[in-house]
Structure formats: C-alpha cells, structure tokens
Amino acid sequence: MTIWNLGSINADLVYHVPHLPGPGETLEARSLSHGLGGKGANMSVAAARAAARVVHLGAVGKDGTWMVDRLLEYGVDTRCIRSVGPTSGHAIIAVDDAGENLIVIHGGANRAIEAGALFADMDGAARGDWFLTQNETSAQAEAAEIAKSRGLRVAYAAAPFDAGAARAMLPFLDLLVLNAVEAAQLEEATGQGIDTLGITDVVVTLGGRGCRWIAHGADPIEIPALPVTPVDTTGAGDTFTGYLVAGLDRGLPMEQALTLATRAAALMVTRAGTADVIPDLKEIEDVAFGP
C-alpha cells in the first residue's frame, strides 16, 4: 500500500546552546548545522525508512530544490511536490545540553498549497492507502476529505496545535497522534475527553514515559519508553508518527506498530539533527537498548 503524506518541507537551522534562551536574553551558539526538516518531511523520511512506500504532497520555493533531492535520496516519492513561490519553509531550532529544544517556524511555500492541486495529485491513491498530515501546511482538512472519499485511512498529528485546524480534521480521522499538552488543548477546545471523540485510535505520546493508546471503546494501553540518554529531542515525535503509520500500513497490529515506533523515537533522541539522521528499520532492529 502507499502513505500519502501532506506535510511541510523546511530547511532546519539548528543552533546548539548551553541553555534555552529566556525573554530578552542574547545567547551565543556553540555550533550551527543546516539540514532537511519540517514535520512533514521528517514523517515521510521516517515512514520510508520503516519500509513503507511514501508519496509526499507538498511545496517548496525556488530555493528548495535541494530539499526535494534529499527526500528522493531517502526513498520518498517526490513527484507531487510543487514549486509555488520564491521562499521555502524554514525553522530556527535551539537545542540545549539536555537535548530540549525551542523552535521558530516560517511556513513559506508550505502555506501556499491549494486543495485543487491535491485533488489531482492524489488521483493515484487507492482504497486502503493511508493519508497522513499535520498542522504545518494549508489545505489539511480539504485533503483529508478527498482522501476519505476515496477510501483512504486518515492519520493526523495535531502539531503544532491549532484548535480550528484540529476541529476541522476530527470528522475524517481514523488515527490521531498528539502529545499530552496537545491532548489537554484539544479537550479544552472541544469540551470532550479525547476518549469520547469517536476516533478509532488515539495515541498520546508521553515523552520519556512512552505513549498511551486509546482504542475506541477500550481501556487505554501504556507502551513504556526505552531507557536512553537524550542528545536532541527534535524530530522524535515525527519519527514516532512516521514509523507508526508505516507499521500499520505494513499490516502490523497496533501494539506492535507502537512498540516499533517507540524504539525508533528512542534511537532518534540519541542523535543530533532531524530528517537527515532518522534511523532506518535495520538499525532499530539491531540496536540493543540498555537498562
């Protein structure tokens, strides 16, 4: 099957700092790295490295050719990535000594995606494929409606959280992935518990504690995190989501797919960087996580 991922493509500027800056603080960075990122690109790379066929739906500016080439190099089908303007998306990321991060995003071309183009781009989608998206592009709900009408299963990572975008997506979802803060924000926005939204599967990521799976009408199941020493948490959630959807696309049971995704995220936080350092399936199967 195929994962059709409507997602952001960003150039990541990563600054390593002794601590995350406070309001009004000027802080000298220890180093700077430049690479491929964006929640959408990260998820596409993760899913491709988890042995799924991935078609990326997205846009870059005239400065973004290198990012499309990098995605293709990593095994992602890039034929549906359009050039829509002069400026691609980018992110400024500060990472401290504990691996925590602070991120500022400029949407650029990611916010210029049109639903009409997506209707044509998804012409090859087949019933049973997955559609995946998050909140760093335009036209998510319109694309989800197209996907649902064509018999695709719809997965949504509700980040960065936007109450209006989340409410618009809810009618189409088979799988919702969000962290604990986003879960609380969604409950406040809807006035409902996330276990009462009628979604087939909800997964709440809990950082160093793992994740919680809430199947509709069933008791929650906890999947524990693996013990690692974090270097950089940037992209860990995207890696988790990409691996989870790829596992489900390959026919894994949900609990097994969640375990695989948890292992991928654990290995990811031991590395500095985003899409360029997402582990592949063999690495995850080979690595021994210690106590």
TrEMBL record:
GO molecular function, one term: ribokinase activity
Pfam families: PfkB
The reaction(s) this protein catalyses: D-ribose + ATP = D-ribose 5-phosphate + ADP + H(+)
Primary residence: cytoplasm
Keywords: ATP-binding, Carbohydrate metabolism, Cytoplasm, Kinase, Magnesium, Metal-binding, Nucleotide-binding, Potassium, Transferase
Binding site for ATP: N179, T205, L206, G207, G208, R209, G210, G237, D238
Name of the protein in question: Ribokinase
Originating organism: Roseivivax sediminis
Biological classification of the source: Bacteria, Pseudomonadati, Pseudomonadota, Alphaproteobacteria, Rhodobacterales
